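Is it possible to get an amino acid sequence alongside its tokenized fold?
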Amino acid sequence: MSITTPGTSTSTPAVPALREARVPEGGLYEGVRTLNPFPEGWEERPYELIEVVPQTRVIGAEVRGADLSRPLSPALREELNRALLEWKVLFFRGANLTPEQQAAFARHWGELETNPLLARGSSDEIVRFEKDAHTRPTYENVWHTDVTFRERPAMGAVLQLREVPPLGGHTMWADMAAAYDNLPPRVRERIDGAVAVHDFIPGFARFTPAEQLAELQEEFPPVEHPVVRTHPETGRKMLFVNTSFTTHIVGMDRAESDRLLAELVRQAHVPEYQVRFAWQPGDIAFWDNRATQHYALFDYMGHRRVAERVAIVGDRPF
């Protein structure tokens, strides 16, 4: 004989009937993400000469205790490079470097680039970004990796804010290793070994006279880079396509390439892979251009913002 306790039921609750629903492929992305700041097997070691203060789980760290106005000792350069590899973008508050000191700091990592597409600062290696109430929007407020239209895109860049608006004008960076790690397996299988074409025209055609673009076409022909590049120092795989300069994936028809690229470039938009930096005058950001994308917010219309950047020549992606 069965006994039923008052107030209880032995029956299974009915499942509510729901109408059929379908989430479009790639249209729902939530839950736990893989957030590894370091590549597999990376040896973490304490810093002896600097203090490194991470700003997020995977990207961005403030560095304290380094005087960037003076030549770096080999030991300090090694620690800064290790911090750059681990955190992809380093922030130095109140560095207040002259353009010459800024360039000298960057040269510890290699030869400096020149870029005829951008406004020149006090020398050929220094790019000046100057906006005020009368400046029209340009090419910075979109997720991108610098100069991937070159055969050897920049290894990194050193940016200093000379003048900062009263509100806004922040810059964001995204970790493209985390972006790759979190792609669905079916997508990784499609893109491992794939090659994409990069061209400077799409990123600059909106803001540059056609005559100037035509003059530079021979100097900057389209180039091919792997969709997934391998970091030359850490060996980590990273997503290497961006909205500004990647035009199509080789071997795919245009519609298929466009759909896949749209899915890939959206990965930079995931907040868990990002760091956001609120500038003060004299601050420096030094980022690994091989491993990141960045986005300069243009939310300070009517105010003045002045920045200067030097970029370091990189290697051929593989």
